[in-house]
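Translate sequence into structure tokens.
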Amino acid sequence: MFLHPRSDKIGVKKDGTVWTLIAKNKHSGQLLTEWRELRRWDGKSRKNHLVDIPFSLSSVLYPSSSKRNKAVTAVICLECYIGRSLYDYEQASHINDDPGDNSYGNLKAQCALNNFIDELFRNHTVSHAHNKRTSKKECMRAIKRLEELLTTL
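Result follows.
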């Protein structure tokens, strides 16, 4: 079990499942003697990328966030695997392009721009992937804009 860097009451296994020692519902905040799995619910057309975390842990894990009881499963998993919280500019990225696979070794931390580039060239076969596409001309325009921005820094 990989524990979260901000709390020893939440962790993940190598398969990407998220576990906690905090009771749920009316006993929320109380410690359990055994780990319980925090499940992602199955929507009608896709598996949700959020997991409900106990309210007592949400302010510990993400003190500057307005999120109440939800966390992105990939982020929770990656932070546990690497042993630190992600920096503000980092996102969790799936190496094998399967957004449902949060297993050990399939996540990496990278900036939003590189994550978006990966999504552009990913072969989207799932309906919820939004099929982001672009042309070579628009890619060249984006490269030019980035070069201009970098010269002004």
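Note: Confidence is low (pLDDT under 50) at residues 124-129.
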